[in-house]
């Protein structure tokens, strides 16, 4: 894509949203110069992590002189970090990959171009407000920025990982509307934290099979490879009536050929919203509850979110928060800080340079 086009879009976006913070101006991040600690797992699994915090070497959580603790995800190492931060009376920041991550999977060694740093919680955990939820709630003036981001992501056919080819999946022809059901890996933290469960997938599948639609199931890559078990894999196979999509093609390629997306808590639903596709949620991912999705919430979930997501937000406002206001972007080639538009340009350039593309 012509750089002049992207730069022009950026100028328009920021000229109408002058009050938004510059990159790096995130008051909830650890103070500049603070020595930070993390568990052995985090230090070993993410040796590049210190580059996001002043190029420092991340210390042990038990080291003297540590001013705060970094925690990744929500599994055992994160629980250990939380316990140590409480014991030592230290602040803790929750870390995750950004929503526009890389060209390639983390398991394949791809270093992320973005991470999120949250002083309140995790974006997938609806039991308490996260910093992302607060940013979405206060994003009234960010629509123009979000529109510019959304247009660039859709135009360049991007999603979180961006390593799969753009090729139409092989699907039986039909005149019926197509519903895509997004499977997730059994034990995926984002399911339970979003107040979903195995029953959520059962209900989603039953509702889809009872409709007069062609039901497609997008199988998770780890399930395709035989590494993990999917919630819908056995359930749908036993009931029949649904078609599994196991083509190794991009998110954009799949969304090109469906009319609706139904999910429990996958980011795939957000990818669909960016492209104007109706989305139904059976749990509460970060983009649900704002009036842009058809929410199949239970009584408890409605009660949890009643006072926190009462305001209506547009897809563009949510996109501004998720892709710009919330994450931090860095170029792994030299660790310079970037904004989301520069990250998009970098991903596109990496895709063009990839001989597999």
UniProtKB/TrEMBL annotation:
Q: Which superkingdom?
A: Bacteria
CDD domains in alphabetical order: beta_Kdo_transferase_KpsC_1
GO biological process assignments:
polysaccharide biosynthetic process; polysaccharide transport
Q: Name one Pfam family in it.
A: Capsule_synth
Q: What is this protein called?
A: Capsular polysaccharide export protein
């Amino acid at each position: 894509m012509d750089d002049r086009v992207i730069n022009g879009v950026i100028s328009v976006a920021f000229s109408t949203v002058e009050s938004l913070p510059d990159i790096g101006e995130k008051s909830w991040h650890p103070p500049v110069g603070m020595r930070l600690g993390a568990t052995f797992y985090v230090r070993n699994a993410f040796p590049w992590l210190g580059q996001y915090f002043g190029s420092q070497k991340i210390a042990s959580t038990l080291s003297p002189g540590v001013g705060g603790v970094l925690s990744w995800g929500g599994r055992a190492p994160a629980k250990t970090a939380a316990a140590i931060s409480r014991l030592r009376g230290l602040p803790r920041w929750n870390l995750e990959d950004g929503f526009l991550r890389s060209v390639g999977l983390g398991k394949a060694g791809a270093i992320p171009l973005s991470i999120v740093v949250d002083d309140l919680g995790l974006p997938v955990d609806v039991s308490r407000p996260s910093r992302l939820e607060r940013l979405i709630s206060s994003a009234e003036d960010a629509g123009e920025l979000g529109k510019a981001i959304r247009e660039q992501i859709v135009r360049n056919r991007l999603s979180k990982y961006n390593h799969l080819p753009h090729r139409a999946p092989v699907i039986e022809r039909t005149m019926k509307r197509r519903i895509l059901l997004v499977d997730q890996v059994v034990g995926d933290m984002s399911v339970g934290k979003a107040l979903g469960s195995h029953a959520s997938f059962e209900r989603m599948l039953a509702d889809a099979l009872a409709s007069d639609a062609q039901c497609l199931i997008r199988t998770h890559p780890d399930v395709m490879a035989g590494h993990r078990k999917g919630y819908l894999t056995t359930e749908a196979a036993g009931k029949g009536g649904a078609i599994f999509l196991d083509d190794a093609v991009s998110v954009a390629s799949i969304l090109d050929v469906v009319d609706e997306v139904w999910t429990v808590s996958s980011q795939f639903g957000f990818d669909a919203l960016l492209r104007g596709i109706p989305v139904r949620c059976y749990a509460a991912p970060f983009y649900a509850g704002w009036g842009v999705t058809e929410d199949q919430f239970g009584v408890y979930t409605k009660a949890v979110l009643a006072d926190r997501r009462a305001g209506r937000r547009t897809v563009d406002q949510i996109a501004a928060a998720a892709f710009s206001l919330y994450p931090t972007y860095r170029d792994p080639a030299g660790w310079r800080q970037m904004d989301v538009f520069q990250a998009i340009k970098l991903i596109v350039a990496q895709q063009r340079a990839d001989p597999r593309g």
